Automatic annotation (TrEMBL):
InterPro entries per UniProt: Alpha/beta_knot_MTases, MRM3-like_sub_bind, Ribosomal_eL30-like_sf, rRNA_Methyltransferase, SpoU_MeTrfase, SpoU_subst-bd, tRNA_m1G_MTases_N
Native source organism of the sequence: Caulobacter segnis
Family: Belongs to the class IV-like SAM-binding methyltransferase superfamily. RNA methyltransferase TrmH family.
Protein name from the UniProt record: RNA methyltransferase
Keywords tagged on the record: Methyltransferase, Transferase
Swiss-Prot/TrEMBL GO biological process terms: methylation
Length: 263
C-alpha cells in the first residue's frame, strides 16, 4: 500500500489529527475525526473521501483497509501507519479503534434544504451535550429523516464524542445551522407541520395531526424551548410523564417524537 510509517508523536500529521479534539482547531481547519474502519467505509460509500487515514498494526491486513486507503489516495490525501501508542493518544482511549480518519465538515445551508425530500426533519435549539446530539443524528438517520438543523448556540456536531455517538450517521443526514432569527424566517416557508415539544403543552404527542414534511423542534437540556420558538410552532406537544421524572432525556424524547411523526 501507498503509505508511510510514523512512530513519533511529534510528527506533523499526528499533531494535526490530535488537535482536532479542540473545537477551535476544527472550526479553523473545517476538518473532523472519525474512528473505526466500518465508519470510514460508510463515509466513503456516502461520497466522503478521507483527507487522512491513520491505521495501526491490527488493521494492516484488513481487506477493507485497502478501500479506505484507495479512496484517500485518489482524493490526494495522506495515509500513515502508526503504532498503538499513537492511536491511543489520537483517540484519547486505552482501547482505540485500529483505524481513524480525518474528513471535511459539511454544513448544508438552510436555503439548500428541500423539505419534501424527507417526511421528517429535526431542529435542536441550543443542544449542549455532544452525546445527545450524536444520538439524535443517529436516530434521525435510522428513521429516514432528512437532517438535523442546529438552532442558536449548539454544541459542535463534529466533536469527537458527538461523531462517536452518531456511529457513522453524521455522513448520512444533512446538518445545518442557523441563528434563532434565521430559523424563524426559514420556518415561515416550511410546507408541513412545525412541531414544538414542551413540558407545559396540553396536546398529547400521539393525538396531534402531523402534516408531512414535519419539522420537530426540540429544546435545550436545561431550559427547554424558549417562548419565542414555541410560539412559532403550528402545534406544541407533550409526551406523557407518568412517574416521578418530570422530563425525558433530550435524545430519548427526540427519538419518540421522530417515530411518532413518521409512523
Ligand atoms: N427543564 C426543562 C424544561 O422545563 O423544558 C427540561 C428540558 S428536557 C430535559 C429537554 C427537551 O427534551 C425539552 O425541551 C423537550 O424538547 C424534550 N422533552 C423532554 N421531555 C419531554 C416531554 N415529556 N414531552 C415533550 N418534550 C420533552
Amino acid at each position: 500500500m501507498n503509505t508511510k510509517t510514523v512512530t513519533s508523536l511529534t510528527n506533523g500529521t499526528v499533531k494535526a489529527v490530535r488537535a482536532l479534539h479542540m473545537r477551535k482547531e476544527r472550526e479553523e481547519s473545517g476538518l473532523f475525526l472519525a474512528e473505526g474502519l466500518k465508519i470510514v467505509i460508510e463515509a466513503i460509500d456516502c461520497g466522503h473521501a478521507p483527507k487522512i487515514v491513520m491505521y495501526g498494526p491490527d488493521a494492516a491486513d484488513h481487506p477493507m483497509l485497502k478501500k479506505a486507503v484507495a479512496a484517500c489516495v485518489k482524493a490526494g490525501g495522506e495515509v500513515i501507519e502508526v503504532n498503538r501508542e499513537i492511536l491511543e493518544k489520537v483517540s484519547r482511549r486505552d482501547n482505540p479503534q485500529a483505524v481513524v480518519a480525518v474528513f471535511k465538515q459539511v454544513f448544508t445551508p438552510l436555503s439548500a434544504i428541500a423539505p419534501e425530500s424527507a417526511p421528517c426533519w429535526v431542529a435542536m435549539q441550543a443542544v449542549r451535550d455532544p452525546g445527545n446530539l450524536g444520538t439524535v443524528i443517529r436516530t434521525a438517520d435510522a428513521a429516514g429523516c432528512g437532517g438535523v438543523i442546529l438552532v442558536g448556540d449548539c454544541v459542535d456536531p463534529y466533536s469527537v464524542e458527538g461523531v462517536r455517538a452518531t456511529m457513522g450517521s453524521i455522513f448520512a443526514v444533512k446538518i445545518a445551522k442557523a441563528t434563532v432569527q434565521e430559523f424563524l424566517a426559514w420556518r415561515e416557508t416550511w410546507p408541513g407541520s412545525v412541531v414544538g415539544t414542551l413540558l407545559t403543552a396540553t396536546v398529547d404527542h400521539k393525538s396531534a395531526d402531523y402534516v408531512k414534511p414535519s419539522l420537530i423542534l426540540m429544546g435545550n437540556e436545561q431550559q427547554g424551548l424558549p417562548p419565542e420558538l414555541a410560539a412559532a410552532c403550528d402545534v406544541n406537544v407533550k409526551i406523557p410523564m407518568r412517574g416521578r421524572a418530570d422530563s425525558l432525556n433530550l435524545s430519548v424524547a427526540t427519538g419518540i417524537m421522530i417515530y411518532t411523526v413518521t409512523g
